[in-house]
Amino acid sequence: MLTITVDIPDDLAANFDTPEALRRALFEDFVIEQRQRGAISLGKAAELLGISYPEVFDLLCSKGLSPINASPQDLDESYRRLVELMDKGSRAGLGATRRSAAD
User: Fold this and answer.
1) For helices 42-49 and 53-62, what crossing angle results, to 10°?
2) Are 46 and 55 in contact (CB under 8 A)?
3) 45 with 35: CB under 8 angstroms?
4) Residues 48-74, buried b or exposed e (16+ Cβ, 10 A)?
5) How far apart are CA 22 and CA 8, in angstroms?
6) pLDDT tens for residues 35-71?
7) What is the pLDDT of residues 63-92, one digit of tens each?
């Protein structure tokens, strides 16, 4: 693992109880930035941070970030494909069927 040295102004470093707390905050932010760019998965982020998959979700949400790394267009396309698959499954007698408003 690469080790780097970073100069942090004393007044900013004073916001952390220990040098280890500061190191952890910097590393978390680095890992999160890599995740948000799509360079690593949520699972890899959890592994690097030594926390569980659900804890990564909590960490992202605590920083006001979404655990879903997709554009609104990607989400719309995924939803459209899901609806198409559900419709095909319904017609083939597989899975749940859609109910009409009259049901």
Assistant:
1) 90
2) yes
3) yes
4) bbeeeeeebbebbeeeeeebeeeeeee
5) 10
6) 988 899 889 999 999 999 899 999 999 999 888 877 7
7) 998 888 777 787 788 888 888 888 887 777
